Each structure stands twice: as C-alpha cells, then as structure tokens.
From TrEMBL, chains A, B, C:
<keyword id="KW-0052">Apoplast</keyword>
<protein>
    <recommendedName>
        <fullName>Dirigent protein</fullName>
    </recommendedName>
</protein>
<comment type="subunit">
    <text>Homodimer.</text>
</comment>
<comment type="function">
    <text>Dirigent proteins impart stereoselectivity on the phenoxy radical-coupling reaction, yielding optically active lignans from two molecules of coniferyl alcohol in the biosynthesis of lignans, flavonolignans, and alkaloids and thus plays a central role in plant secondary metabolism.</text>
</comment>
<dbReference type="InterPro" id="IPR004265">
    <property type="entry name" value="Dirigent"/>
</dbReference>
<dbReference type="GO" id="GO:0009699">
    <property type="term" value="P:phenylpropanoid biosynthetic process"/>
</dbReference>
<dbReference type="InterPro" id="IPR044859">
    <property type="entry name" value="Allene_oxi_cyc_Dirigent"/>
</dbReference>
<comment type="similarity">
    <text>Belongs to the plant dirigent protein family.</text>
</comment>
<dbReference type="Pfam" id="PF03018">
    <property type="entry name" value="Dirigent"/>
</dbReference>
<dbReference type="GO" id="GO:0048046">
    <property type="term" value="C:apoplast"/>
</dbReference>
<keyword id="KW-0964">Secreted</keyword>
Length: 185, 185, 185
C-alpha cells in the first residue's frame, strides 16, 4: 500500500512537471496587468521652412512627397528629436527624448506611422525603449508595439497607447503615451 | 531502505524542478508549429508621376535617390497604404491595410527592406501586427520578423514568409505573405 | 511519522511547482549571460555626389534635409547595403550584409537612429537578425534592440552594443557591433 502511494505520487509529479514544461514554452497565458506602466507626453514642433523657427523646431520633413496623392500629406516623412515630459507642459524638464521618425500614409485622411526610440536619461531611468506601429489618428486611442529595450528596460516588450492631447495646426502637436510593459527582465 | 527511496525521489525531484526553471528562463526549445497562421496577399500600386494614376495609386516614392548607384533603384523609399486581401484578386474586399514603407538597397540587383504594420479591421480580426525585415527579392521565399502586435494579436511574435506572386513592371506587384505566429498571448 | 513526511514532501512539491509556473509566465529573471554572442564589424562608405565613388559606395543619402537645423546633418537619411566582417579589415570576406537605413536626428551634435537587417549567408550562419534603436554617438558604447530573427536566428531577441571603431570624415566609418542574444530557440 505504501509502495502504491509512492508510485501514485511519482505519476502526479510527472504530469505536473510536463505541464510546467509546456507552459514555459508556449506563453499562452494573457498577463493580467503590466509589469511596469508609465504615462508620458510627447511634444512635436515641426520646422516651418518659410518662417524660421529653427531654434524651437524639434522635427523636420525630409521627404519629397508627391502633392497630388490626396490632401493629407501622403508620403511626408518627418525626422524628430522630441522632448518627452511627465506632464502636459512643453517647457517641463524632459525625462526622455523621442528619436526617430513618422510618416503620413493615407490619401483620404490624416494617418501616420511611427518608428522611434525613447532615450531615458533621468534620475529615475537610464536606458531605451524601441517602438513601432501605426498611428491611426482618427481613433481616440491606438496601440503601437514596444519591441525591445535596453538599460533599465533591458529586453522589455509591451504596448504603448497613443491619444492626441493637443493639435495646433501643422506646427505643434502633443501625444499622450501610455506605456505598458508586459515582459520585464 | 524506505528512507533511501525517499531521498532518491527527492533528488530526482530537485533535478527535474531545476531543469524546469532553466527551460522557463532560456526558451531553448523550438516550437513545433505556429500558434496561429494566416495567408494574405499584399497589393502595391506605385504612383506614376508622369501618367497620373493618383486615384488608384496606393504608394509613392518620397525619396531623392542618386541615379548613379546602379540600375536597381538604390535608395528609392516608397511609403504605402496597401490593401491586403485573402485571395489574389486586387479588387477583393481588403481584410487589412499594410501601412509603412519599403526601400530598395542594392546596386547589383533588386533588393528591398520593409517596415510596416498590418492594420486589421474586419469581422474576423481587429488589431495590428508590426513587421520588419529584408526582402531579398531574388530568393523564392524570404523571411521577415513579426516583432509585435496589438488588439487580437496582443504581444504576438513570429515570422512572415514573402513570395513574389506577380510583377507588372514598376507599376504593380503582389506578394504572398505567409504569416506564422509562434508567440501568442 | 512516515505519513507526515510524505505530506510534507507533497507540500514542498506544490510550492516549487507553483513558483515554477509563475516564473514561466512572468520572465522576471535577468539572464546571466547571452545564449549566443557574436562580435562583428560594420563598414559604411557614403556615396559622395561630387566626387564619383559609386563603385565603392555602399550607402547614399536619399533625403531632402533642411540645412538650417543645426550643423549636424539633422534629417539626413542614408540607405545602406553595408558589408559586415569578422575583423576590422574592410576588404575581408563579408560574413553578412547590413541592409536598412540610418538617419541623423540632432541639432546640437551628431546623433543617429538605425533600423536594419543583418543578412547572413556564410558557411557558419544562414538567416537574419532585425535591429532597431538609437545610436547615441557621443557615448562610448550604446545599446540597440535585436527585435527578431529568422533562419539560424529563428525568433531571436537580444541587444547589440555599438562602439565607434573608426571615422574618416563623412566618407567612411566603422562600427564594432557586439551582438548578444538572450532569447534563442
């Protein structure tokens, strides 16, 4: 009887170990909540070629887009080094820079695509987050992918939710970026 | 004897648990098959500046490439908002849009590089997949990386295999995209 | 007494299994060392429009950057197909090509952003690694993200550490790329 009990325990044990192996390799479970979350604001001041705002500008169109593909800047590609703040105020001390580019890619409405790096260099964080995805401007919120990280964000992955926080013509816009990491090392 | 048997079991147990830990943290096993697979077709109609096809065009060259670096459009950068269909027919109802860009980057042959987002908005899927990688055109099939996803494809990773399905000069080409996700949440 | 010992063992067992499950799903542990490491050198020979070096050039500026945003090539976007060697010698047989682009994005100093694919086609490796991130040139070393891989690098993730190895004006520069994969399949 004692022997039977031991065999039984070993059987249960093997079943549990196997299921553990399977879970370790499939990552099928949806994480309930982020392992880290940050809300940050992105400020873009586009260089205006005719009125010189080069001292304040943080981004510039570097493309040669055709003007005849609709009225929504199709093909315009903007390189940026934009300040990232913890509140909505443009002149707050930046906690990071956003470096990369966006482009407009629709004929029928404003729609953009982003690829950039958040470069943190503050007392709180040192490191980078790399982000790419579609900025479907006419949706109230839209999700882009955080595809990697370095430093304090070593190997991170997650989702960043954009929402438009302010638009002042083509010259300035502000995005709220709700950063949620679901893989933290 | 009974005591020895118990110690032995505990030893085996610790070895198995340790190996389980190691596997959980190293992800060394190759997944046998995708957790999700989709075959889709990508249609690109390049804007032809001289003959106005702006009503049909879904992409445009926005760069200033030098003409003297070979004969294969080195440096040409094309922004696109291309329809994605489930069959090869250009006029089928799109199940997604592909938004992003490709560029040509070889002096000696046609060779491209893609970074884009598949934006799904159909009855079946809502969400995005973010993709980047080399499109080595002279290979029958070539693999790019799916580096992230949102919505129904939350946190997905995988590989997309391109194969050229049709080419009509510079004006139109169609790619078959075999999407295989190996990490699904 | 024997029975108590068995219950105790089962309890320990359940605790360990549970912790194993948790670790498998949260990936909170920092891997001690890469599962694969490679040191490679990247050579970039920029096309010089005025003096024709088109035979040797491996990259070209394809943008229309504004000249008035500082003195550090803000907005310049360079498409490349650059040789990758195992030693510092430009004329060594390449083990891979780096295909993609970089752009300059600062008004006050040289600072760049990269997105590219390492295309391996040697006796040792066949496959690709996809990389993006900020190249903060004034730091001795800077980390970019390896966001995906294919072929021999199927589904890989990691970090690549750049360090400037040589600069000869705008015409040539060499980067040391220390590639560390932390997720290997």
């Amino acid at each position: 009887m004692e022997k039977f009990s031991c065999y039984f325990k070993i059987l249960i044990f093997i079943i549990l170990i196997t299921s553990c192996f399977l879970i370790a390799n499939s990552k099928t479970l949806k994480p309930k909540k982020p392992c880290k979350q940050l809300v940050l604001y992105y400020h873009d001041i586009l260089f205006n070629v005719t009125i010189t705002n080069s001292a304040n500008a943080t981004s510039a169109n570097v493309s040669n887009p055709p003007n005849v593909l609709g009225d929504y800047n199709f093909g315009m590609l903007v390189v940026f080094d934009d300040p990232i703040t913890e509140d909505q105020n443009l002149v707050s001390t930046p906690v990071a820079r956003a470096q990369g580019f966006y482009l407009y890619n629709m004929k029928s409405k404003y729609n953009a695509w982003f690829a950039y790096t958040l470069v943190f260099n503050s007392s709180e964080y040192c490191g980078t987050l790399n982000i790419m995805g579609a900025d479907i401007i006419d949706q109230k919120t839209r999700d882009l992918s955080i595809v990697g990280g370095t430093g304090d964000f070593f190997m991170a992955r997650g989702v960043v939710t954009f929402s438009t926080d302010a638009v002042e013509g083509l010259g300035y816009f502000r995005l709220k970026m709700d950063i949620k990491l679901y893989e933290c090392y």
